[in-house]
Amino acid sequence: MKTITATELARNLRKVLDCMVHDGEEIAIERNHQQIARLVPGPRLQTALEAMADLYRTLPPEAAGGWIKDSREYPGGGWIDEGVHDPWDS
């Protein structure tokens, strides 16, 4: 963890934040040789593929069947067809 003084932070805020985004590590802030705060990077953004990638390892097969069934059911009742249809096709 990198350490900087409160004065350095005040004078170089943009540079410090850019460094934090690039390096992804915490930064300790000191005043009078005593740590007063820590800057912690936010969570990294994920794509939908990354977010769903672990689902197959954590979802048991029994739950997977129910999940697919539930995903095809309309909230008001009825079912979604298996095929893809063009809504503008007459």
> What share of the residues lie within helices?
40-55%
- The first-level CATH class name of one domain: Alpha Beta
Query: Mind telling me the C-alpha Rg?
Result: 25 Å
Which overall shape is indicated by the principal axes computed on the Cα atoms? elongated
Tell how many strands the DSSP assignment holds.
3
What fraction of the residues are assigned to beta strands by DSSP? 15-25%
Structure classification: alpha+beta
Q: Spans of 5+ residues with little confidence (pLDDT < 50)?
A: none
CATH topology assignment of one domain: YefM-like fold
What is the number of helices?
5
As laid out across the biggest beta sheet, the strand order is 1-2-3
Distance between the termini: 63 Å
Main sheet specs: 3 strands, mixed
